[in-house]
Every structure is written in C-alpha cells, then in structure tokens.
Amino acid sequence: MEQQGDSLRHHCGVVGVHSANPDNIPEKLFYGLFALQHRGQESAGICYRKEIPEDGTGRFVTYKDLGMVSTVLSRYLEKPHPSTLGIGHVRYSTRGGNRLENAQPLAASCNKGSAAIAHNGNISNASALNARLSMDGSIFQSTSDTELILHMIARSRQPDFKSALIETLGELEGAFSMVMLHEDQLIAIRDPWGFRPLYIGFSDTITAVASETCALDMLKIRDFREVKPGEILYIDSSGVKSETFAPGTEPKRCVFELIYFARPDSLVFEESVHLTRKAMGAALAMDESAEADLVMPVPDSGNSAALGYAEQSGLPFEQGLTRNHYAGRSFILPTTSQRELAVRMKLHPVREVVRGKRIILVDDSLVRGTTSRILISLMREAGAKEVHLRLSAPEIKFPCYYGIDIPTRKELISNSLSPDGIAAHIGADSVKFLKIPRLMECLKDGEGYCYACFTGNYPVQPREV
Amino acid sequence: MEQQGDSLRHHCGVVGVHSANPDNIPEKLFYGLFALQHRGQESAGICYRKEIPEDGTGRFVTYKDLGMVSTVLSRYLEKPHPSTLGIGHVRYSTRGGNRLENAQPLAASCNKGSAAIAHNGNISNASALNARLSMDGSIFQSTSDTELILHMIARSRQPDFKSALIETLGELEGAFSMVMLHEDQLIAIRDPWGFRPLYIGFSDTITAVASETCALDMLKIRDFREVKPGEILYIDSSGVKSETFAPGTEPKRCVFELIYFARPDSLVFEESVHLTRKAMGAALAMDESAEADLVMPVPDSGNSAALGYAEQSGLPFEQGLTRNHYAGRSFILPTTSQRELAVRMKLHPVREVVRGKRIILVDDSLVRGTTSRILISLMREAGAKEVHLRLSAPEIKFPCYYGIDIPTRKELISNSLSPDGIAAHIGADSVKFLKIPRLMECLKDGEGYCYACFTGNYPVQPREV
Amino acid sequence: MEQQGDSLRHHCGVVGVHSANPDNIPEKLFYGLFALQHRGQESAGICYRKEIPEDGTGRFVTYKDLGMVSTVLSRYLEKPHPSTLGIGHVRYSTRGGNRLENAQPLAASCNKGSAAIAHNGNISNASALNARLSMDGSIFQSTSDTELILHMIARSRQPDFKSALIETLGELEGAFSMVMLHEDQLIAIRDPWGFRPLYIGFSDTITAVASETCALDMLKIRDFREVKPGEILYIDSSGVKSETFAPGTEPKRCVFELIYFARPDSLVFEESVHLTRKAMGAALAMDESAEADLVMPVPDSGNSAALGYAEQSGLPFEQGLTRNHYAGRSFILPTTSQRELAVRMKLHPVREVVRGKRIILVDDSLVRGTTSRILISLMREAGAKEVHLRLSAPEIKFPCYYGIDIPTRKELISNSLSPDGIAAHIGADSVKFLKIPRLMECLKDGEGYCYACFTGNYPVQPREV
Amino acid sequence: MEQQGDSLRHHCGVVGVHSANPDNIPEKLFYGLFALQHRGQESAGICYRKEIPEDGTGRFVTYKDLGMVSTVLSRYLEKPHPSTLGIGHVRYSTRGGNRLENAQPLAASCNKGSAAIAHNGNISNASALNARLSMDGSIFQSTSDTELILHMIARSRQPDFKSALIETLGELEGAFSMVMLHEDQLIAIRDPWGFRPLYIGFSDTITAVASETCALDMLKIRDFREVKPGEILYIDSSGVKSETFAPGTEPKRCVFELIYFARPDSLVFEESVHLTRKAMGAALAMDESAEADLVMPVPDSGNSAALGYAEQSGLPFEQGLTRNHYAGRSFILPTTSQRELAVRMKLHPVREVVRGKRIILVDDSLVRGTTSRILISLMREAGAKEVHLRLSAPEIKFPCYYGIDIPTRKELISNSLSPDGIAAHIGADSVKFLKIPRLMECLKDGEGYCYACFTGNYPVQPREV
Ligand SMILES: Nc1ncnc2c1ncn2[C@@H]1O[C@H](COP(=O)(O)OP(=O)(O)O)[C@@H](O)[C@H]1O
Ligand SMILES: Nc1ncnc2c1ncn2[C@@H]1O[C@H](COP(=O)(O)OP(=O)(O)O)[C@@H](O)[C@H]1O
Ligand SMILES: Nc1ncnc2c1ncn2[C@@H]1O[C@H](COP(=O)(O)OP(=O)(O)O)[C@@H](O)[C@H]1O
Ligand SMILES: Nc1ncnc2c1ncn2[C@@H]1O[C@H](COP(=O)(O)OP(=O)(O)O)[C@@H](O)[C@H]1O
Ligand code: SF4
Ligand code: SF4
Ligand code: SF4
Ligand code: SF4
Ligand SMILES: [Mg+2]
Ligand SMILES: [Mg+2]
Ligand SMILES: [Mg+2]
Ligand SMILES: [Mg+2]
Description:
Four copies of one chain form a homotetramer. Chain A is an alpha+beta fold. Chain A contains 15 helices and 23 strands. In chain A, a hairpin with a 3-residue loop joins strand 9 and strand 10. Chain A is globular and about 75 Å long. The two termini of chain A are 35 Å apart. Residues 195, 254-256, 400, 402, 404, 450-453 of chain B line the site of one iron/sulfur cluster. Chains A, B, C, D: The active site is at 12 (nucleophile). Chains A, B, C, D: Mg(2+) binds at residues 301, 363-364. Chains A, B, C, D: Its cofactor is Mg(2+); [4Fe-4S] cluster.
C-alpha cells in the first residue's frame, strides 16, 4: 500500500555491536534493527563474525533478504550464535531498485583483509568515483555505495586497511553514516557534514552504534553520545579509539530527520525528536491566523507537532483520525484508482469528533498532495466544517542528494502551486507551511543543518557524470 | 509477541454483504474484515456464493486459513469473483485452541439446504446442547458454536430453514452476533441480550452487516443502524425483512467493547467509542487526588481516556510512550524471561518527556499486571519521578461466559491484591480503577450493559455440564 | 504437469500403526505414507492419539494439508511425539474436488466416543445413504465417504461403537479399505469384495496396516498377511482380534491395482505386482504378430510388462525412453497447447537406441491416447522406423464406481476407435491390448477380480440418486 | 536425503539462448535448465537481456535462488519476457558452500561493458590468480570462479572486451565450459582440455548452447554439434562466429561424465551416454568369473551398464530394485543413524525377484561404500543368495581438480581396501571394478579423456597457493 503513499522515503538504518566476551551478536543486531525498522522496510541483513573455536579465529557470515526484520532475521532468535562483533542494516531502496543485489551489509575480502559495510546515506560524487574505478578495472555487481567504498579501500596504495580507509573517506562527498567490520574490529564513521545521525553507546558488556538512540535503548544502553561529524571510531577488545578525518568542515545535518524520519522517542543530532517536533508545531501556531475549534494530527507523523501546536495555541488537542494498526506492506492494491481505498485503509476519521468542527490538521510535510486530498475529502464526508492544513516542514521544492528519495521537481506540488493553490487543489480551507527561520529557531544550532530541499542551496555540490 | 501480552483477547469480528447485482463480493468482504482485524488476528475466512452463470444458480465457496486478513485473503483482490452475497470472519481463538478446524465461516449442507455461518460470541449453554445432540447421533468435528448451530437447524423438526432457525435461536443462551448465508439469502442475527455489537448499513448497491461501523465505512456506507438485540434480518434481492425472535429480554451489552475492544473510530451500541472512552477518562479525573505534572496514555488503548482525563483535569496531555508500528505477531520470543524485551519492543518512553515528571498514566484495564510492571520500570529508568496508573475499567475479578477470554480468577491481579497492593507490586506510586457507578454515567443506558466480569452478576446464568 | 496427464488416477493410500509401548507414531506414519506417495499426491494427513502423561489418557491430534508427504508431514520428524496409535492417508481427489475439506483422516467425537477414519475406495451407494442421513438431520461439511461413515456410526441405535460399526458396514456397498481409530484401538476393515488392497504386519514392537506391503517394508516389518475381504481387525494392547462382517460375498479385487496402481515392489492381493506385470507382458507376446527389433517400456508403468514381453519373445529389451527424475507436480503449464512440452519434460527418447528400429513399445493402458500420440511423434522424430504399441490392460470402456477416477465414456479412446483406428490416430504402426482371458491367466484366482471398466459387468450395482 | 548419499556430486549445468527475434527467453532457459536439473539441485538462476522498447536498448536482469528449477524459475512461465538473449545455470555447491553468494549467473558492469557468466567446471589455478588480483586491489564477494573471470576481463589492459576475454582465457587452467552475455552477444567457451561437455544447436529461430543435448531437445533443436575444446563462439544477430583460443592442447574429457553424470538420453563428447554405458557393462561381463542367475542394476545410475552386461553375458536382465519416484531433497533426516532409513526410502528390493537368486548387481562407481553396504543388507534380507557387485568405473582413489566433488582420499574406500576387502566390508560375495584399459576401449578416443581420479595422473597440474 505504501507504494502509493505520498511520503518521502526513509533511506536506511544501521547498527553495529561489539562485545567484550562472546555473545549472541545476531540477536542483539535483531533487536537493534527491529527498533530501526521505520528507516527501511524493504530489506534487512546482518553480517557477524562467527567464532571458530577450534583455532580462535572467525569468519564473516552474512544473511540478508528482502522483507521486514522480523521475517528475515527471526531465525537468529532460536539459538545462540557466539560472536563478538557484527553489523546490521535495514533499507528502503532508492535508485538501485528493489533488488537483493543492493541489500546490505556487503562483505568482501581483499588485499587488506576481510571487511563488511552497512551504510546510510548517499555518496554524491559516486558516479565520478565509479567511473574512475571502472576505468582502472573494477567490476560492479550492484549500484550501491558500499561496493564502491570497498573497491576504493582495496585499490588504495596505502599499506594497511586503516590508512586506506582514511584515504578513501577523504575522497567521499555527501552523506555516509557507516558501520564496518574489519577482521576483529568494529568501525563507525560519520561524514564530515553529519547529514545522517549516528550514536555510540556503552553498557557493561557491549559497545553499540546505531542510527538512532531508540536502537540503543533496545539493548539497554543508557550511556551514549553522538558520533561526531567527521569522526571515525575503532572499537575492539582493547577499547574505543576516536579519530577525526576531516577537520574544519561545517556540520550540515539533515533537518528532515527531525521533521519526519526519526522516531519521536529517539535522540538524533543531540536533539529530542519529539520535543523538536513539538517546537515546530508551536512555531506554526505562532503565525496562525485561522480561527478553529480544535487541533488534530495526521497520525503518526503529525502527532508531536500537533501537540505542540495545541499547547501554544490553547486550542483543544483531539485524535480525530485513527491510523490502522495493520496497514502495512503486506499487499499491493492492483490499480491506482484504488488509491482512495488505500488511504481509507490506513487513516479513518472519528466522525463524532470531526462533525461540524473547524479543524487545524497538522502533518509533517507535503510532497505530491495526493494523500492529503483524499484525507480531506474523508474528513468532509465525516462532517468537518473547515479544514486548515498545517505542515511542520517548509515547502519542498528541490531534490536531495544526500540519501533521501524525493520525487522529481515536477511531481512536488510546491513547485507548481502556492499554498493557496494547494488549498484549492486538495480541498482545504487553507494550507500553511513552517517558515525556514521559524524552523531554525526550533533547533539548538540552526546554522548546522541542511535545508537544501527547501532552498536549493546544497552544502555539498552534487556531481553527476 | 502478543502471546505474552497481558490484554483481554478480542474474540471475533463478522461481516456480511449482499449486492443487488453481481459484484466482487470477496473483495468487499476483504475490506470489511481488514477494518475488523483488531477483533481477531489468528484466522480469517470468507464464504461467498459463487455465481454459476450456466444455470443461474450458485454454490458456496469457503476459504479460510490461519493468519491475518491481508495474508489469507489478498488472493481475492487479483481478479473479480462475481457473486451477490457472502460472509466473512476474523477470529482470535479461545477454548477451541488455535486450530484450523475452528476457523470460520463454517459451511454445510443439510436437509434444509446449504448454509454457512460466521459467529461472534459464546453460547453459554453449548455443553448442554452438545450433549443432547451427541446423544441423538450428531458428530462434532470441531468445538465451535457454529457447528452446534448448524446441527440444531438440521435436526429441527420444523418444516423449513427459517422456522428451524427461529426454533434454534430460542434454545441458545449467551452471546451470538451472527451472519449467515442460506441459499441466496444473507441473514443477520443478534442475541436478545445484545452482548456483541452488530450494525447493518445500506448504500445504493449493497447492504452490509458488520460488528463495528468502521467496516461499513470501508465500504463507503454512511447510512447504518444497529441490529437490535433479539432481531433477525433477512436480506435478499427483494429487500430487507426484520423480525424479533425473543421479545421481552433486557439488553445486556458488553461494556468491555466500549472500554477496550472496539476501534475508537467505530460506533457500537449506538455509542461513539472514542467519546465514551473520553468520558471514562474524564470520570477518572473527577475522583483524582494525586498531584501530577502531566497525563499520558499507554498507547493505543489508553489514548482516548487519557485525552478525556487531561481535558477534565486541565493537566497537559503528553505522548510520552511510543507504540512501535511493527510490533505484531510475526514471531514469538522463545522464553518468557524475555517478556521484558517484548514490552520494550512494543512500547518505549520518550525520555525527555518523562524525566523528572509526576505522571498520570492512563490505560484501559489491568489483567495480570505483568506488562504494567515492566512498563513502569521502563518509565522509572527513563527518569519518571512519580507514576500514577489510572484504569478506565473497574477491577476485573470474574470470568466472562459471553465470548471474552479472561484468565482464571487466580491469575487476575485484582483477585489477590487491592489497588494499593497492586501499586506496590507493579512499582506505581498509586493505582486507581474507574468505579462502576462512574462507568455507568458515561453510557446513555447504563442499565443496559453487562458488568459481570467486575461484579460476578451474570445476566445469563452459565451452564456447564 | 500431471494434470494434463493421461493416466487413471490413483485414489488413496492408507496406513495405521499400533505400538505396544509409547513410540513416535507420527514418524512411523510418515515413513509408511512416504512409501505410498504414488497412491495420492494431492493431500497428506495423519491422526494420532497424543499421550497425556498427566492422567494416562490421550486425545486425537489431526494434521493434514494439501501437498506431498515430505512437505506436509516432515515437521513430525523433528522431535518425538509419544503415542501408541495413529492412522495416515494420502489422497488424490476425485469427485470431491481438490479441497482441504475432503482431506483425510477425518476425526470427530460422537455419542460412541472419539473416532478417526482414513479410507481408500468409493462407497457406491453413498448418495442414497447421504439422502437418508440428511433427511434425518445430519449436516455435511464435505463430500467425503468418511464423513458419511462417521455419521452412520453416530446415528446407529446400537448400544456401543463396535456394534454400530458392524451395523454401518452392513449398509455400505462398494469399495472401502479403511483404518480407524476409536479411543485406544486401531481398527482395520476391508470391504467384502476386497476391491482395494490392505495388508497387516507384525514386528516385535508394532502392528501396522497399509494399502501395500512396500509401506510395511519401510517399517521393517517382514511378517505380514492380507486383511481379507470382509474382515475387520481390532488392534489394541491386548492383541489383534479378527471378525468377519459379510460372510459369503465373492471377492472382486480391482485388477487395475496389479496392472497399474500398485508399486512393482509391493504385494497386493497376495500377488507380486512385478511378477504379475511380467506375466501380462509375456501374455501379450504370446499373441504377437508384428516383427520387431526390440522391446521398450514406457517408463515406469510399462517396465515390468516390457521385461516379461522381452523374455517371452526373445527380443532384446531396451531402455530407449528416459523418465525425468524431476518431473513432478511442482508447477502447471499454463496452456493445454503446451501438452507436448509436458510430455517432453517427462519422457525423452534415447535417439541412438531408437533410430532405424522396429520397436515394440509397452505401456500399461490407454485412456485418452493424448500422451501416446505425442510420445510416438517424439519417437518418430528420433528416427524410429516402426512403433507397435502394446498395452498390458484390455480396452477401457466403462467408468469405475469403486474408487478409480476414469474419464467419461466419451473421452475414453477405446469407446470411439478400434485398435486399428487408435493406431492411425496416434501414429503407431499397430496397437494391441491384452485380452481379458489372457489377463485372467496371469492371476492365481482370475475369477476373484473385477474387470468392470473393460466389460461393463459391475460386481456391485452402482446406485446414484 | 541425498546429503547422506554416497555419490559423486554433479557440479553444474549451463544453458544459453539467442533468438533472432524477441522471444520469451526466460521460458526457454527454464526448459533447458529443467532438462539439466540432474547436474545441480541446490540453486538455479538466469540472466537475460530485458528489452527496453523505448530506446531499443536492453539491460541485464538476473534472478537466482537456492532451490530447484521448477521452484525458483516457474514465475517466468506466467507471462512473456521479451528478450533476445540469456543464460542460465543450475548448481551443486562444492567448496564455496551452499551460499547464495555463489549462485550463478553472475552479472557485473565494468569498463568493457556489462557482462554475465554462467560456468561449469573448476579453475585449477584459481588461488594463484585470486592472489594476484587481490594484490592489485580486487575485492571478492564470493569464492566462485565466475567472479574471478569477470575481474580478469575488467583488469585486462586489452582495449576491448573480446581481446580482454581472449587474454583472460589464456591464463585460466582447468575446467571451464561457460556461457556469457556481453551487451547483445551470447558467447560460449570451452576449455582447451574439454573437461566438461558443451553443445551448440540451431533451430529456425534460435541458437542455443547447453551442457548436454537433452536440454537442446527440450527446445526442439535437432541440429547440433559439440563446442570444441578450446573453441569460443560469438553468437549475435549477425550469426555465429567461431575462434580457437588455445591451439595445440590435447583434449582430456572427463570420463566420469559418461560413467555417471550425464543423462543417458544425452550426447556428450560426441558419444551417446546410454550406449557408452552399455559398452562399459559389456566390458565388465567380459572379465566375469562368477556364476549367477540374473543381472540387476542399482537404478538409475546402473541401468544402462546392467543392460549391456546382460546382453554380453546372456544372463537375464531383471529390475529387482525399485527407485522411489519421490525420494528427493525435500527434507533432511535428522540423524546419520538414519542413513539406513534414507536408503530404504530411495531403493527397495522386489522380494520375489531377489529371493534365492545369485545376483550380478551393477552400479556406476563406489565412493565411500556406505550406501552399497546398506543396499546389500536389504537384498540379503529379501532373500538374495549371492550378491556380486560390479562397478562400471575403476577404483576411485584421487581427488578431482576439474569440477567434481570427490571426498578426501581417506574417505574413498578404494584407498583403504582391495576389492576383496570391500566385498567383506559391504557384505558382497564379490566386488569387481572396470579396468581402465577396458574402459578406454568403450570410447571412440580413449586417449582423449581424463582418468586422474583413478590414476593420479593429472592432465593439468593443480596449483594451490
Ligand atoms: N486503528 C486503530 N487506531 C487506534 N486504536 C485502535 C485501532 N485499532 C484498534 N485500536 C484500539 O487499540 C487498542 C488495542 O491496541 P493496544 O493497546 O496498542 O494493544 P493491546 O491489545 O496490546 O492493548 C484497542 O483499545 C482498540 O480499540
Ligand atoms: N513507533 C513509533 N511511534 C510513533 N511514531 C513513529 C514510530 N515509528 C515511526 N514513527 C513516526 O511515524 C512517522 C511515519 O508514520 P506515518 O505518518 O503513520 O506514516 P507515513 O510514513 O505514511 O507518513 C514518522 O514521522 C516517524 O517518526
Ligand atoms: N531422467 C533420467 N532418467 C534416467 N536416468 C537419469 C535421468 N536423469 C539422470 N539420470 C541418471 O541418473 C543417475 C543418477 O541417479 P541415481 O543413481 O538414481 O541417483 P544417485 O545420484 O543417488 O546415484 C545418473 O547416472 C544420471 O545419468
Ligand atoms: N518407486 C517406483 N518404482 C518404480 N515404479 C513405480 C514406483 N512407484 C510407482 N511406480 C509405478 O509407476 C507407475 C506410474 O509411473 P509412471 O508411468 O512414470 O507415471 P504415470 O502415472 O504418468 O503413468 C505405476 O505403474 C506404479 O506402479
Ligand atoms: S536536502 Fe533535505 S532531505 Fe536532503 S539532507 Fe538536506 S534537508 Fe535532508
Ligand atoms: S462479563 Fe465482562 S467481558 Fe463478558 S460480556 Fe460481560 S462485560 Fe463483557
Ligand atoms: S472397474 Fe476397473 S478400475 Fe474399477 S475396480 Fe473394477 S477393475 Fe478396478
Ligand atoms: S579427475 Fe576424474 S572426475 Fe575429475 S575430470 Fe578427471 S575423470 Fe573427471
Ligand atoms: Mg505520515
Ligand atoms: Mg493496550
Ligand atoms: Mg505411465
Ligand atoms: Mg546411483
């Protein structure tokens, strides 16, 4: 159903675990990935170092498949798989198509040992690097950035893995929050701009890395911190070592992680997602002009902002739309003419709340506008008197080169219609977006964020060949 | 995961559709059942009358399997299955075990024609009837009430199906909201006490019957009414005929449908579920003595009541617990020592909301208390200063004989502990239940409800052999 | 693929096991059924009595599904299921359609206890019995004979199960080789005509009943004998008791079991299948007039007869057709125009053997002639000079009412064409069938067999309502 | 079950198809691979060039999975997939383990275009080549020879794909029969020694390449010839071009293809498999000294040789062992103590044939001897008086480096026991192997074959690093 949806696509989530003593690493990866399922529902995979008790060594075992974490990886819950380190990945496919070849982690052996990578982001100079490597005789079995990175490490003239890795990182542009395995070491890396979030946490027995803190919570880790932009962390039995590989770059975190992608109960970029969203909702309320009876979220992405709006405005908060617990990806409605049915299956008004009311309806953002159009018609049908749509994101007008799948400019409704035009188009009484300056005020360090999909000012210039 | 859960079990949901003209009935049943998925997640099934164009007749086709609606029935979305009537069922198994034999609808042919039944409820004198039929030479392939009812109709000395059905209904005690197919007729029946909900609705082309109105909404039906307790409806191409088969019985609707089972966006018993729950929450607030900083629901069953509580109390409403979108039934955690993990996978605190706060935590009811105990420890871990648990149901102390699976009396925490004892046991600062008189005030016709699981006063005396 | 095949359909196979001491009965049933897989590939099932150690009782557990034995039942190989008795069934569906409702064994409880049946054959007066039971108020959830029999036992006025069973058997006409469970007893029954085979065997620890001896071999049973026509055997911890329930009936065994259905390494009807088939082949050779270079079977059903033909004729035996090991039921070729492809996927000539040769091609029987037509064209294509088709069965002209699925009279090629006409139609140089007197000479007791599908002389008059 | 078997492992089968006009290439690959299923049952895959009608180009689509052809690829039978070329592969895993990473075909893009390979054989200097490539910075995602070859082509300094391919082939040692796709060209290659078979065939509309002619037969191709050792064929819309890349090498075909691997109805190495096997059986008979009553094969691998033996010796040929039609890979018997059960499930004596007889039992070869031991005990149990085991292969004593998975020297029974010792060990009255000179006499060009697993004389020296 979500195929016909009308949200931006989460890209990926990563997790990595190192344990001082042999532990059931695949199980830990399972729980971590389960908490990150919202970041990618099309494939799931892990790679862990299987202990070979006979000779004290290990070898990497990879298992990945199309499907959800619970389907693909539940086999690992049945019995222990002694190991000391592993990484995991959930993915929503973008350019690469929905192919298993592009599923991650990717493991390979090369002249600098065996390595595996799971990666969240998008290398914006990938085409150029690809062309160079290809010219030099590399083969590409997928279109994923991970394969590119492994090639670069193998190709590097540097004498060892570590220096080859540093050299490689120096050539990458764009977004990359990565976890890697190299022999008996877990490595965590975040690009110098810090586009995608990454956290590291510590408990008595394990060290774990994950895209969002909700995954660390699943592992009962309370002591954590952000992996810093441009930081590289080496984690092994001797402890954790930190290095900086790109000093001097200004952070440009993806503001959309806070607006929409991350889970409300996570921290990303040292910000509470829920509280930041509440602040965005409050900011919307500050500029309000419409008179209304109540504030309602489009669940669940509009929940936090609607709460913030309600608190700021003093209007009553209501839950006048329910989100079906079972509306997942289990089947595909055959024809697009059934899009209305798809929305109806997911979201449904509570007639008694909506009837006769002037409603402030809060959601995160507007992409194509198709879902909103249907939703508003359902609300009218349920008797709503006025529907004022408020978005906690500014108008999306430009593509993203840092790992988010935004439709083409033509499909983005804000490129063809003004807010008033949109209101007319989707049947709302009014439509308003959060202004960028207001958005910046909701953040501790408003300057340290990327807003390119709203402004077209790209912090790292995309390079396509 | 839910196996280890700690809620009452929804029993069943039913839907029936009749169309004036041949239509894709299985598809309509699919959408109706999809909306009722929360009433039973273990098996799904439909029975429809397949048109035989050659001779203008039809025959019943049944398809049912263990699994969710989208898995079991999505095959019916691919191509049209011309038909004019059908029924469907979702089920959570109770006594009968999780066996396919007990899945519904059940179709059979007998001396009064071909018939199929889907049933929600529990016949409280089933054992006695069973014994009698068995003595007379009936065989039982399942333990379901539907098989019993079909036997009784076949056995009846009445000359035709209709009079045999009426005779049979007269002998049934307990809860039964049913949809039936008999030849080219759809029949809807509700027991004289009206324990379980049932609605009938009409659009231009179809007449549909369903447990809750949310299923009728999926079929774009806006014109509906309750099937009355003791009412029987015959729906065929000549229209709808209503009869009453047990005049004079006092309605005793299951109050738990409103407290917990039904979807908040449904009407049941001519009440809005969401608004009734808000009223229950408000009623809880009226008797409050604790001082607190904010009100939070245990999502999603506590949502509406928490909103009502907040409005009544004037305390801020917060969403300090998130409910994982992907926590379903896809796998079973191997050991019960992992129960904590199961709760953690489903519910997770927003640390920044909870930290340092005195919290009113609102949920629907308390069964064993195990989930609440873990949940409160998660909230303490996240820094909550005080947690006051409020339940929008009274204390559950007795079994239900009308179709709800309540644990044994020994397992019900309210049979061994007072609210204070429970608070100590689960680590809450206080625990309070809604008082029955308060609960009755939330209902249009408080007297017309069953409260037996709280009081032990059974409106229909259970009869076990 | 076999859907488009052109053989008679095996009907069913049954197995039953009783063990003096608790044993892994489902595993034993698995192995027995695996050996009987050729008797039915569409569904498999078992019912066994699960020991309840707590109170020394047991209850029947049934598991059945559409699919092959190894798919449906391999779950039972993983761990022990302590039990002392059980029955199993493989099925090829006939009239009842390929529906799970008709899968066996069928278990039910009634006034005479709990019972389960697995049945091979066809009750030829089923419609009449059905009508009577229906009139008396029985309901039918399937179209299977097993449900009918259970109803009759339950309905019987006899005071106990055993006498009710005997009474019921007295009313059944047609073919029934059955295994039953009743409480802690395994019962084996064969109809008075002995249409379908049934054997009982004994090892130190178990007593087993099966359609063919190959299933007893799998259980390492060497000491066995035929269950006699009209015999009923009660097997429990006190031993085996035999009774005769229909003295005086003349046996009429299905000659087609020997011609085609049974496995060559089995005994049925106290005859070796392989040796009897060899005798049939030899008998064909006795009446031969064609000159030829070699004898070849259509594998595997023609193997034994071809060997017998070669020995008798003195012509060299060759294997000039291979039968693909992997041609099973795993997929269905979409269009019937692909029937040629289906034959090609299963049978393939060895060009170097066939080229330039005059060939006696031996198969068991001719039904529609479609496969033979394609097969002969493949042989011509491979260079065969002459192809003389010899069938070890007489011409099939009439339907069977005793459990074999024979196409309608119109579809049977021998009803429209003479052997010469068939030869012209399928492209053979000549076609000859085994004469009935010759066939009778191959059997120890030629008079004790049914030949109705060749002659139209039905030993038990079919009765349809 | 076969896991516990005791045969040599077939390695792989390949097929390639080029069509002048767009055709349903995946369907053709399906049928070809279906006929080659006996060459590998663990994974199946295809890669075809999907036509992009918009711009007249195409792109390679790969689909492969663990499982049988009918399971993995039947999806391609449902609707047409217009294409002009594709390749396919079935695989039995050897060193690489049963991992999907090693499944074929393998597709990749590189500086010389897009290419895909499916390969049958084993590169005996792979380790050395691997080491060199790795040193130069190549990464390895699998342990398959196909990945190696693609790397070498990409790495080559030659200016174009074709010359790079030729250069690469010049460096490969060992066995490789390959089909490749490069842009719109299908390429077929056979190593200079011709270890593994490969045929090319032509019909009006398509050109196809396959390991054995039985796959060409499925495609209704009658006009075919061997791809010659050291030949490379370029097939595209302009026709077929042949080149020789390693003139002067002496062919060393794998004699085991004729003894055991290939299907009896195939040609390989311009020899009829069935007739060659018959000759081997006859050769065994020439040196016979034992007196016997009959000759019997171990089906199906002993069939042809047993026939040849019987013809030569004048002894009657009998089918005294049946091979179960359904004994496949569908499940794994849990413990090795059940090996006897596994043999019993696959092979079963016809008691009436065997009893009291002195039997010449013919099979292809003896590896560990475990199966034969059980089999002979089953025959004794069935009453065989004498069992003389005859093998149509010489004694296997050495490993194979050219693509066949032979157990370690220690496990090969002929390394520890003489024929008489083996007879004693497995319970046979005598055991005899075919002598190498006799074997050579059965072949048109006895010198042109490899016999290394019998003699230790390796035609290409294996090189491990
Ligand atoms: N689509 C929906 N949206 C909101 N609430 C729902 C929906 N479907 C069912 N519910 C409500 O959810 C509650 C059950 O969900 P929840 O509390 O999360 O699970 P549990 O059954 O474990 O208590 C019920 O009270 C039901 O009324
Ligand atoms: N467990 C959760 N509880 C609440 N919100 C969640 C949870 N997981 C993800 N989210 C949030 O849900 C939103 C996506 O859900 P929703 O709006 O229902 O779907 P859609 O992706 O169609 O917009 C995101 O904003 C994400 O932050
Ligand atoms: N369709 C077929 N018909 C007859 N023989 C075949 C067929 N396919 C493969 N074979 C042969 O079967 C042999 C393998 O089968 P078999 O001996 O039964 O199994 P195993 O691999 O256990 O020895 C091979 O020699 C092969 O040539
Ligand atoms: N394991 C076996 N070995 C040899 N023959 C068998 C075996 N199992 C069944 N048969 C025989 O195989 C025949 C059916 O196989 P076959 O002729 O290949 O298929 P079809 O059913 O299409 O005619 C029957 O005659 C049966 O007796
Ligand atoms: S362009 Fe938009 S979505 Fe992409 S990183 Fe920047 S803020 Fe995030
Ligand atoms: S006993 Fe409780 S659960 Fe049962 S019907 Fe009455 S109120 Fe509902
Ligand atoms: S009619 Fe033919 S198939 Fe039927 S029982 Fe008689 S001999 Fe057998
Ligand atoms: S060593 Fe043996 S199996 Fe290997 S290629 Fe030579 S003959 Fe064939
Ligand atoms: Mg949303
Ligand atoms: Mg709840
Ligand atoms: Mg046959
Ligand atoms: Mg063999």
